[in-house]
Amino acid sequence: MLSGFPASAGIDPDMQIRAYLVAIDGIPAEAVWRAAKLFLAGKVREHNRAFAPSAASFAELARQQQAVIARENRPPIEVRPEPPQPKVEAYKMQLLRQAANGSLNARRQLASMFPDNPVIARAARDAQETMG
Predict the structure, then answer these.
(1) Which of 10, 73, 83, 90 has CA 20 to 30 A from 111's CA?
(2) pTM (global) more than 0.85
């Protein structure tokens, strides 16, 4: 990898390789390979492409690639279909739309249809108080 960066020619390659080996200790070979490929292809942002990456930068990208590999190997999440919901009758939806638009008559009808619903019951009470 060092030969791919011309400005790194004056660096002792043996020492640089040792630094890389220490930095990537414990990181899988596939992740190291991917990191090297990204640096050599010039696809690492904020990296001066004239110089070889530091051992720390290289190891950081290798760890990121390790996480990418783990994510790629994870089994896909099984999406369960939602259970079918009962259909609301069209006239009830129409009443709800009318009540939302301010129809007092529609609010009263909904309150009589759903007496245990506190929201509808309160809306019907409010409508009766404003009329009476």
Answers:
(1) 83
(2) no
